[in-house]
Write a structure and sequence with these properties.
By secondary structure, this protein is mainly alpha-helical. 75% of the residues lie in helices and 0% in strands. It contains 11 helices and no strands. The termini are far apart. The mean pLDDT is 86.
């Protein structure tokens, strides 16, 4: 019996080879990401290490760090909770206007952030639709951390919904029926069957919403 020890060849691919695609990827990342980051750190430390530490630990700068991270974290947590609820409703229920509501979820993606900020500022100002009723109660939204949080919630919600929605669609109804047939109530079914399945998607949605909130500027600069 003869054994054929010929060289194994990879099947031909319809896309260009690894060398070309890898070279383009490195070039693209260098131009768009790596070189700007290097320039950023180089420029920051050009003032000297002591001056950089002094500037970065100034009281106003530290206050801006705290405001940014706290409001971003609160907005991401709220988006995670309500994003899962919205995704659940879109996947599991059929109701009038569902397609319109599904399209509205993507509205923050389509609107320029400056437009979002102007719209929110108009709504929550002292003469706005909501602000005119809130301010007499002592609740001021515009130019406060509450307004910033609302803006971050508005721009971050779609990230959670669009991340969790496909994960919910992949869950088989038979898994929930099997859980119910074994005596589990609805909360136990959600906690032990559904949540472990969608948890990676929920965590990803939270991370995306938090990262988006950290870098948001257009809507925040108007309402703050």
């Amino acid at each position: 019996m003869r054994l054929n020890f010929g060289i194994l060849k990879r099947p031909n691919s319809p896309i260009p080879g690894f060398g070309l695609t890898m070279g383009y990827t490195v070039f693209y990342l260098s131009i768009i990401v790596i070189i700007p980051l290097i320039a950023l750190f180089t420029e920051a430390f050009s003032m000297g290490f002591d001056a950089f530490i002094s500037a970065s630990t100034d009281a106003r700068v530290v206050a801006s760090y705290k405001l940014t991270f706290v409001t971003s974290l609160i907005a991401a947590l709220i988006n995670t909770i309500f994003g899962v609820v919205v995704a659940w409703c879109l996947v599991r229920y059929t109701f009038f206007g569902k397609r319109v509501f599904d399209a509205i979820v993507d509205l923050p993606f389509a609107l320029p952030t400056a437009v979002s900020g102007i719209a929110l500022t108009t709504l929550y100002s002292s003469s706005g639709w909501f602000g005119q009723y809130l301010e007499p109660l002592g609740i001021k939204i515009v130019f406060t951390p509450i307004g910033i949080t609302i803006a971050l919630i508005f721009i971050g919600l779609p990230f959670v919904v669009r991340t969790v929605q496909p994960a919910l669609e992949e869950i088989q109804i038979e898994q929930e029926e099997a859980s119910a047939s074994l005596g589990a109530n609805r909360w136990q079914t959600f906690y032990k069957v559904i949540l472990p399945t969608i948890f990676p998607a929920v965590l990803t949605g939270f991370a995306l919403s938090f990262a988006r909130a950290l870098g948001e500027y257009g809507s925040v600069v108007f309402i703050a």
